[in-house]
Amino acid sequence: MTEAGVQVCPTCKVKIIKMIGGDRVLFSTGAPGTRAVLWARVCQYAKTPACINQDRDRIGTIQAQDYYQPEANKKPEAIE
Ligand SMILES: [Zn+2]
Question: Which residues of the chain form beta strands (DSSP E)?
């Protein structure tokens, strides 16, 4: 494994791994996600140009499930 393709957002402290077909984001807890998930959960609140995940072209389309899901709304089959 090489760290060459890894960026860390200085604002959000989240690792973004460059990958073909879509970057992967490693959160401090939970499963890895996409830039859209990172933006929906973290970077939209950053409000600083230092955040490296503010480029909407790279973030792509943000879907409803990319946002934090309240526990009450979790479907049983989504829990593994
Ligand atoms: Zn960020």
Answer: 6-8, 15-17, 24-26
Tens of pLDDT, residues 10-61:
999 999 999 988 899 999 888 999 999 999 999 999 988 999 999 999 999 9
Residue 42 CA to ligand 1 centre (angstroms): 6
Ligand 1 geometric centre to CA of 51 (Å):
4
Residue spans per domain, the chain = 6-62
Task: Of 7, 6, 14, give the one whose Cα is nearest residue 46.
Answer: 14
Q: Are 46 and 80 in contact (CB under 8 A)?
A: no
